Amino acid sequence: MTEAAKIEIQYNRMANECISMDDANLVRQCQHGDSAAMEQLLIKYQNRIYNVILKICADPDDAAELTQETFVKVIENIGKFEGKSQFYTWAFRIAVNLTLNYCQKNAKLEISSLDAEKEMEESQTTQAMKEFLKDDNSPDPVEVAQNKELCNLTIKALMQLDEPQKAIVVLRDIEGMNYAQIAEVLNIELGTVRSRLSRARGRLREILEAGLL
Fold first, then answer.
1. What kind of architecture, by CATH, is found in domain 3-210?
2. Is the pTM of this model over 0.85?
3. What are the residue boundaries of the structural domains of the chain, listed by start?
């Protein structure tokens, strides 16, 4: 591992610790009835939670309703939160469980609507452009266009996975959670995270290579 990579890992760890400390303070305030602190927490994570739900259920209206339901559950259960995990992994666990249960109950196995797909593509493209603009050694426009096309194809392939596979790919490759956080969110063992992620990525490659889009 290069020295730069080590520094980046340390920086990310420190940033996560700072975020967790801020969340811990807000949670304590929430547990003492501070509605403003609860509002701060919900605003802080609402977009991330919505985007994760959307990528699993593939319907903007369903995602909006499930996000609201997640917030209701968070508010109802904040008093039971003991701080054994980070607040955001606890909240994401609620969101993912609600979404997977909803999808199973309603047999939501279809590919996303064009509107949902377009929204996700725009979100991914925006993030790709942010990364591109941060890099002083930016690639040429042809390479950028190729990466955007690959990104769009990958999103379409993602929509063909079953919901549990979508969830683990979204949490790892889009949300950027580590294996321990994913295990906590999905309530599975670390080894299961690795094997399930490997199978999901393999299925994505199969879809892309077979041209099943």
1. Orthogonal Bundle (1.10)
2. no
3. 3-210
